[in-house]
Specification:
CATH architecture of the largest domain: 3-Layer(aba) Sandwich
Distance between the termini: 15 Å
Strand order of the largest sheet: 3-2-1-7-8-9-10
CATH class of the largest domain: Alpha Beta
Order of helices and strands: HEHEHHHHHHHHEEEEHEHHEHEHEH
Structural class: alpha/beta
Radius of gyration: 21 Å
Largest sheet: 7 strands, parallel
Shape: globular
Length: 414
């Protein structure tokens, strides 16, 4: 069998320990771009922001569960929860006032009677709540203004039970700012000194629809993940965008020029762990994403889940890569070679950590390289260690020193 193609540039593993990595200049760090959603990347984001301030996080806005679902139904808007989660994860925790805003953005209202919840929300908006009294200016004034605007627009029957306050703040800014989602994210990112860039892949108010192998259909992200509904009964055959939860008519969206430029200029593109279809593949559905990926002159890395993902029913690591290829080719063209979509699959050296079958030879027959590293550690308990993965991605995004290419990495899969 012929040797698999090399990455666009040689790579190496960082020899420095984590403490040495932190002493570098993260403001000059590489542009590592993620297609993601959900909470799976929160620990990785907190580790990565110490190494580079230039990571790019393109987030799906098609979530239809939890606190985001109530806001979407009330205001006809894209999902905000995953965007808020990533902004908070990337915020500079050393800045005065940021620990307090972190607590506020993460706070959920309890499940109590409506009058008590409305009283708590009013206390937050008036500056009388304990969480708000801790804030420093100008954050205090901004929180009061955004929550006040949300309260003025909130339907009288809006269910506040379990509502995330950070989502309500972003919703207030979104509604006040003529529904310009990018602008409100930029505003809060500057305010929190976010060490990276967080953007929706598209800001459209759309939903996910899936055709399953048994011929049945599923509409809504929350019905795919196995978290708020029973796990899907058959494997996903096709994922697409639909108009709404009540109207499964196929819909289309297209990325803007800013997102396209970020993808094309990335120093590394990562398809990370997380819900495979509703978080990763969902970001590949809008027009222009696949073509931008193939135009990027950088490594493209897939990091499989270690634990079980209900959305990957009946799949292997190789068939997951085949799915990435298929959805990128839907936009970029059927003749796009695998090397322009996925160059490398990054695995933990102990393949027994994976719920999916790890079919290395099938990956190599596709022309995709496999690198095995120590990604799962005893403290991470069968999950990928965020610090180890952050260092590996940093290394893969950098040109190698002489003699430090793929073949010289001792921990590489043999």
């Amino acid at each position: 069998m012929s040797a698999p193609p090399r990455l666009p540039r040689d790579v190496r593993l960082l020899p420095e320990p984590p403490a040495a990595c932190k002493s570098e200049a993260p403001e000059l760090g590489p542009r590592i771009l993620f297609f993601s959603g959900g909470t799976a990347l929160r620990p990785l984001s907190r580790a990565l922001k110490l190494l580079t301030h230039n990571s790019i996080h393109l987030i799906t806005t098609f979530d239809s569960g939890g606190s985001s679902a109530l806001l979407r139904r009330a205001f006809g808007m894209p999902a905000l929860g995953d965007l808020r989660n990533r902004v908070v994860a990337l915020a500079d925790e050393t800045v005065r006032g940021n620990p307090q805003i972190y607590r506020l953005f993460s706070h959920r209202l309890p499940r109590r009677e409506p009058s008590a919840l409305r009283a708590e929300l009013d206390a937050l908006a008036s500056g009388e709540h304990a969480l708000v009294r801790e804030l420093v200016e100008p954050m205090l004034q901004i929180v009061e203004a955004h929550l006040g605007f949300f309260i003025d627009r909130m339907p009288t029957d809006f269910d506040l039970r379990g509502a995330n306050v950070g989502n309500l703040l972003l919703a207030g800014g979104y509604l006040q700012g003529d529904r310009d989602l990018e602008s409100v994210l930029s505003f809060f990112s500057r305010l929190l000194e976010v060490r990276g860039l967080v953007r929706p892949v598209v800001p459209d108010d759309l939903h996910l629809g899936a055709l399953l192998a048994d011929g049945s259909s599923v509409v809504g992200q929350h019905r795919l993940t196995g978290k708020e509904a029973a796990p899907i009964a058959a494997s996903v055959q096709q994922l697409g965008l639909v108009r709404s939860l009540d109207d499964p008519t196929p819909a289309a969206a297209r990325i803007g020029d800013e997102v396209r430029r970020h993808v094309e200029a990335a120093d590394l593109i990562c398809y990370p762990m997380g819900s495979f279809y509703s978080s990763v593949i969902a970001n590949l559905l809008p027009g222009g994403v696949g073509r931008a990926i193939t135009r990027a002159a950088c490594p493209r890395v897939y990091v499989p889940n270690t634990g079980a993902d209900p959305e990957q029913r009946g799949m292997t690591v190789a068939s997951s890569v085949e799915a990435l290829l298929r959805y990128v080719r839907d936009d970029a063209g059927a003749d796009v070679p695998p090397s322009q979509v996925v160059n490398l699959v990054l695995l933990d050296r102990n393949e027994g950590n994976y719920a999916l079958p790890v079919d290395v030879r099938a990956l190599e027959r596709m022309g995709v390289q496999v690198m095995s590293l120590t990604l799962v550690t005893e403290p991470s308990r069968s999950h990928i260690d965020p610090q180890r993965l952050a260092e590996a991605l940093m290394s893969l995004s950098r040109p190698a020193a002489p003699g430090q290419g793929l073949a010289s990495v001792k921990d590489q899969h043999g």
